[in-house]
Design a protein that fits this description.
Length: about 425
């Protein structure tokens, strides 16, 4: 029977791979990062149930690794594509791990002795990692990776590894190879907007103005602060926190007119987690509109209000730093016409979704189109929301538009069935 490829191993990509594999199709699950899991692996809890994110995702990751019909390709990305539906020739480039995947058992001895510390991208820059590392404790596959850019070649990791799994630079190199597949699912996910470009928000100019993703890592029990709320300026517990919505969404000044769908709900979720763990902490949310559109979302919003979270309909023009007084926000409550002066200890910018890095290149390689927003285009959104202009190429999850985890998983399942049918026809 013919094989299929899934590009991107986040929530949508893993679900698509599992659905196809469980129907007897061989699946190549391709991920450019060292581990599968995507953005969902960085989250603490998920709305509207407040379930542990990794408690849901980790079993899926392990299942994908153990499924005999799924071949994992981490540190790998597409280079070119030839052929047509039922007979694609996909060329891939595998980047070096500088660790032997056959010998490494993920014990961690190598990064315990490594003297180099750099910012950990998985922790959104709040935590640190070593020059040889695992992005987080529950990675799949459970293998270390060495970062040659920051490695000082001290030799300690080579000496401590009893299995001699750590490779030197000249022992590992990029590898280009091809696979033949009947259909391809693109589930490359999203990136978050960088609010550094909006200087009036003080991001990276004041340590107590952080993004929602950084806040996710802060409140996570496995994060760099052990789940404890902290002001980055002095390490103290914040007494008041303000969430500012629609950063990088619904903003014509930066050509992002679309809504990112999840920002209202993940901010409400994080606000609720604060009140549940720290009921004395004041929490205010500055919003344009609360868009609680999904099943159980409106009830979730009502729960948040009952917990004492203060919702103010208004957007601040800028965030100010008052000498000796900390941060200050002036905002008009457009429902009461009242001007408010807020002096929070911590400000969380609810950043929106944007196309993942390299989306334009992916579109060029696979011969598909993108919308004006940069997300991949589906020409028949009503009849075939996972389809593209090229037969046999499908899109799923946040690669096609901003969406939450349930919608991403549902679209992954739909794309898997489309690819499954293509594989059946090709193998007939």
């Amino acid at each position: 029977m013919s094989e299929i490829a899934v590009i991107g191993a986040g929530a949508a990509g893993i679900q698509a791979a599992l659905d196809a594999a469980n129907r007897g199709i061989k699946v190549h699950l391709i991920e450019r990062e060292p581990t599968i899991g995507g953005r969902m692996a960085q989250l603490d809890k998920t709305f509207p149930t407040n379930d542990c994110s990794m408690c849901i995702l980790s079993p899926k990751m392990v299942e994908a690794e153990r499924n005999e019909n799924i071949i994992l390709h981490t540190l790998t990305e597409p280079v070119s594509l030839e052929g047509e539906v039922g007979n694609f020739k996909l060329t891939l480039l595998r980047h070096p791990r500088y660790v032997d995947a056959e010998l490494c058992n993920g014990c961690g001895d190598c990064y315990e002795v490594c003297p180099v510390e750099v910012y950990n991208r998985y922790d959104a820059g709040l935590g640190v990692r070593k020059a040889i590392y695992k992005p987080h404790a529950q990675i799949v596959p459970n293998l270390a990776i060495r970062d040659p850019e920051h490695c000082i070649d001290c030799g300690l990791c080579y000496d401590v590894c009893g299995r001699e799994a750590v490779r030197h630079d000249d022992e590992d190199s990029e590898e280009e190879f091809t696979i033949n597949v009947a259909a391809i699912i693109i589930a490359t996910g999203y990136d978050t907007y960088n609010p550094e470009k909006k200087t009036e928000l003080m991001y990276l100019r004041h340590p107590d103005v952080i993004t929602s993703l950084e806040f996710e890592r802060m409140i996570c029990a496995s994060g760099p602060t052990g789940g404890k709320l902290r002001k980055l300026s002095n390490g103290e517990k914040p007494r008041s926190i303000v969430f500012v919505q629609c950063i990088g969404s619904r903003d014509l000044t930066i050509d992002r007119c679309y809504c990112s769908c999840v920002c209202c709900m993940y901010a409400i979720k994080n606000a609720m987690l604060i009140k549940e763990k720290n009921p004395d902490t004041g929490v205010t949310m500055l919003y344009m509109d609360i868009r609680a559109y999904g099943k159980g979302y409106e009830e979730y919003y009502e729960r948040a209000k009952n917990l004492g979270i203060n919702f103010v309909r208004g957007r601040p023009g800028e965030i100010l730093e008052k000498p000796g007084k900390g941060l200050e926000i002036m905002v008009e409550d457009t429902e009461t016409r009242e001007f408010l002066k807020l002096s929070p200890d911590l400000i969380v910018l609810s950043v929106g979704m944007q196309p993942s890095k390299g989306a334009d290149r992916i579109a060029e390689i696979f011969g598909i189109k993108t919308e004006d927003s940069g997300f991949f285009s589906s020409p028949e959104m009503k009849l075939n929301p996972v389809g593209t202009i090229r037969p046999g190429i499908y899109i799923a999850g946040a690669a096609s538009a901003p969406k939450d985890i349930p919608d991403s998983v549902t679209q992954g399942e739909a794309a898997a069935m489309k690819a499954f049918l293509d594989a059946l026809k090709a193998g007939a």
